[in-house]
Amino acid sequence: MTDTRTTTVAGVAVDTRHWIGGERVASAETFTDVSPIDGAVLGEIARGTPAEAAAAVAAAKAAFPGWAATPRAERARVLHAIADGVEKRLEELAIVETCDNGALLRSHRRGVMPRVAHNFRFFADWLLKLGHEDFDTRGHTNHVSWDPAGPCVLITPWNAPLMLATWKVAPALAAGNTVVLKPAEWSPLTASLLADIAAEAGLPAGVLNVVQGYGAEIGDALTSHPDVRRISFTGSVPTARRIAASAAANLTPLSLELGGKSPLLVFADADLDLAVDLAVEQYDNAGQVCLAATRLLVEESVADEFTRRFVDRASRLVQGDPRDEATDIGPVIHPRQLERIDGFVQRALAAGARAVIGGRRKEGLYYAPTLLTDVAQDSEIVQEEVFGPVLTLQTFATEEEAVRLANGTRYGLAATVATGDRDRAARVTARLVAGTVWVNCFFVRDLRAPFGGSRESGMGREGGTWSFDFYCDLKNTVTAPKGFKDHG
Ligand code: NAD
User: Fold this and answer.
1) Hey, what domains does the chain have and what are their CATH numbers?
2) What is the mean pLDDT of residues 153-170?
3) Ligand 1 centroid to 215 CA: how many Å?
4) Which residues form the active site (predicted)?
5) 151-155 vs 230-234, strand pairing mode
6) Which of 97, 257, 456, 462 is catalytic?
7) What is the distance between the alpha carbons of residues 331 and 319, in angstroms, rounded to a whole number?
8) Is there a contact between 224 and 244 (Cβ–Cβ < 8 Å)?
9) What is the pTM assigned to this prediction?
């Protein structure tokens, strides 16, 4: 059932309006949110306008002094209460997210939504530990403080909507800032549920605002606003360029988490079954993962055996309804994304690539898991982010060549190395250009670690203290040992 204020998705009521200053606000127009699973209409979502975006920034500005002055312990308590709310509504969040973006329900239940709660708990706890030893300069005391910066605009993509939103919302709120969250138009629903949960947890009105709508229509009103003190964006490189240009007017500090074309390097000395498992894992979320190691770089001497075992493993993957526990790969998010993926693959095939598996669409929004060989390093399929279940395989003869191929794109988000030789692991990782390197593992993420990308994969790092460094105005106060009346 849908109307222009609420909708019901898998039995869960979701408000489809904005959340501004502690109130639901409708737009004159709506856009239709459709499920990638079966094309069902999920809701009519408020189609935000620049005026509504400005209203959300105004609400964040008005709420800022109160939240910034709220003692750390109280801010941490509210964040833990939000985490409690996420845990209480975990099943609802999981099913709504699956219906909205098509990612696996079992992943949402067991991995993603628990991590959403953890985002709030982690940054609440980190806030209470945040501090700095004072230090002395010829009797003068230096004291470093992390002051709240002000209203933050947080813009997020559709591939892991609530996980990526809360990875920004939680540290921004912990730091004492207020927030305007703009979720992606292809997966707008769980951001609205988060607004409900935060309000129930006692977050004051205006501290978290959610504006729905098309980035192209309201993005600029948010990112060029002079009252916005931070912009954190996760999404594509072209959008990041537009945001950076828009933010330049006020020199608003930016954190950019962008795309990738990450390599998986498989050396002949690797545990080959482990390497194959790591490679097959790259089809998770139908390949719509920024960190995905979509370029398999395999040492020549084991390439045939690796490929044989890979095909064997990949052919056992179950593709289907993401609500089904047995499913490994669900649909891609949107017909436009399917077109984009297939366009990359068909152009690669026309240019001489060979599809070892896949290389074609299936019914609905499903794309066959694909492995392409005979691809040149400078070809589009090796250089451009596909964001679908499409891997390429290239071979190398030497460690030198492996590193050269691995570093040979304009991205630098992540890299994975499979090797049985510790010395090689150390040598190779030291030379890889990547924000995160995994050795004989993949996707092990710790919120204490710096996360971000090099080159066009991003700007800045978030995680642990790095998040607070970004979301705060760091201040050093130098106090002289003289001049106070109580010191005579
Ligand atoms: P996108 O850039 O199209 O959109 C991301 C967000 O930006 C959406 O909310 C969209 O509405 C908004 N937007 C669009 N135009 C805007 C504008 N002019 N001003 C302000 N906001 C605007 O990206 P997408 O297709 O939603 O997501 C896929 C991309 O995200 C991929 O490139 C992927 O690699 C990247 N990603 C990166 C990470 C990471 O952590 N590095 C994580 C997930 C996804």
Assistant:
1) 6-258+457-476 (3.40.605.10), 263-439 (3.40.309.10)
2) 98
3) 9
4) 257
5) parallel
6) 257
7) 8
8) no
9) 0.97
